[in-house]
Design goal:
Elements lengths: L1 H13 L2 E4 L16 E7 L8 H14 L4 E7 L3 H13 L6 E3 L4 H7 L7 H5 L2 H8 L1 H6 L1 E2 L2 E2 L7 E8 H7 L7 H13 L3 E3 L8 H12 L2 H7 L11 H16 L10 H9 L3 E6 L21 E4 L5 E5 L4 E3 L3 H15 L1 H11 L12 H6 L1 H9 L5 E3 L2 H4 L2 H16 L4 H15 L1
Parallel strand pairs: 2-3, 8-9, 11-13
Antiparallel strand pairs: 1-3, 4-12, 5-6, 7-9, 7-10, 7-11
């Protein structure tokens, strides 16, 4: 076991690419010459990642603004999964970098190992940033036992995208009820089209967004459950019914590669018109007109809809966690503020379609004209009748990992929805 862990660590280190923005390689515990503070920050928005344009622009701007004061030592990791895997290894030895994205259980590990810094005093010293740039909703989501351990960067408002041509071919329109949703899936399947771009690998993102809506749509109990962080049990009727519907989707209405698939597989199936529906956020909109990812004119084929019954999956992701030692803590906080600030929020809106948090930021006319789907998604917030959070936020990372392990068994019928709910309780108990 010890040998295998050492091999894993070695592979992770050898597999990474390091990019240095104006700084020389040196010991992490030291600052650069001349009193410049070096902040270590890994990220995964590289290459063809949806967030890469906005992040590249941000890092250039930050480096110029803080030249001579703060230098960024950036480690690029080529995927979300590799990022999470490496951070989990570093967390085990209390060696997380100064500022990390808390996604996929990284924040929880940073809290458990004592590296995560309570940001409440920083927020209280800047009420405008706290109340207007980030806002009470995002802060409340990331508050645990009265301590604020991370700062969100955008609002997640999620319904589903659909291929209008494939819908027309099947003679359907976006469903108003879940019964109609499954009838639409039958009609798409009869027309020779895979209805849903699902995935059970990584964090099961496109699958679990639909599951969240299915559970939240089942009355006040379902909505309460999907907005409760770390619920006591998954063995409730609403969750079991939702898993029953997802079992049906995995068995009958998705692509052959869905089991074990990563997000990239699901996205490619939608972008290449191998599936008619994908649930995802507004950051995907840029891909619809990206000639490297889909065919010319595909963006004109894409529509957007709320879930049946006017539902949305709404969330604030964990965002950024400060893990720096005292001597670099203020500089690391400066980085988090810049990443989350008004200018960066508008930059991510323009370049990646991510909805801003700041109450005084409106979607500009040129963005509404160039990305009408973004405006449609933003307008839907005022019409929502039910909403659930994402499992990535409200469930322990161990539960999300367990879902990935058990979905194939659920699809095969060797595990019932009730049995899977019981297994998720076991995974949650292990994390408490």
């Amino acid at each position: 076991m010890r040998k295998s862990v050492m091999v894993m660590c070695l592979l992770l280190v050898l597999g990474n690419v390091f990019v240095f923005l104006g700084c020389k390689k040196q010991d992490d515990s030291q600052s650069a010459a001349g009193g410049v503070i070096v902040i270590n920050h890994p990220h995964y928005a590289v290459g063809t990642h949806l967030g890469a344009p906005a992040w590249n622009s941000f890092y250039r701007r930050f480096t110029e603004k803080y030249k001579g004061k703060i230098e960024l030592r950036i480690e690029e990791l080529p995927s979300d999964t590799l990022y999470a895997d490496k951070m989990k290894v570093l967390a085990a030895t209390k060696e997380l970098p100064d500022v990390v994205d808390g996604k996929d259980g990284v924040r929880t590990l940073a809290i458990q190992n004592g590296q995560a810094v309570d940001l409440k005093s920083y927020l209280d010293s800047d009420p405008d940033f706290r109340d207007n740039v980030i806002g009470p909703g995002a802060i409340a989501t990331n508050t645990i036992d009265g301590k604020v351990y991370s700062i969100a960067t955008s609002a997640q408002v999620l319904g589903y995208y659909y291929n209008k041509e494939l819908f027309q071919k099947a003679g359907i329109s976006p469903a108003k009820t879940w019964n109609e949703w499954f009838n639409n899936c039958e009609k798409l399947k009869a027309a020779g089209v895979a209805p849903l771009a699902l995935m059970t690998g990584e964090n099961q993102w496109t699958t679990n967004l639909i599951l969240s809506a299915l559970v939240a749509s089942r009355g006040s109990a379902g909505q309460t459950f999907m907005n409760t962080k770390y619920p006591e049990t998954y063995q409730i009727p609403e969750m079991i019914a939702g898993l029953t519907d997802i079992q049906r989707c995995l068995q009958k209405y998705t692509t052959p590669d869905a089991l074990g698939a990563a997000y990239a597989n699901a996205a490619n199936n939608f972008l290449m018109e191998q599936a008619a529906i994908i649930s995802n956020g507004p950051w995907m909109i840029a891909d619809f007109s990206n000639p490297q990812k889909t065919i010319p004119g595909f963006d004109k084929k894409v529509g957007w809809s709320m879930f049946p019954g006017d539902g949305l999956t709404m969330s604030f992701a964990e965002g950024y966690v400060l893990c720096a030692p005292p001597e670099r803590r203020d500089a690391a906080w400066t980085l988090i503020k810049e990443i989350s600030g008004r200018e960066s929020q508008m930059e991510r809106l323009r370049l990646s379609g991510q909805l801003p948090l700041a109450a005084d930021l409106e979607i500009p006319r040129d963005v509404r004209d160039s990305m009408p789907l973004v405006a449609e998604i933003a307008n839907a917030i005022g019409k929502v009748k039910y909403h659930g959070d994402t499992f990535s936020v409200v469930a322990y990372a161990s539960v999300v990992d367990a879902m990935g392990r058990y979905y194939p068994e659920l699809a095969a019928g060797t595990l019932s929805p009730a049995q899977m709910a019981a297994r998720l309780d076991e995974a949650a108990a292990a994390a408490r």
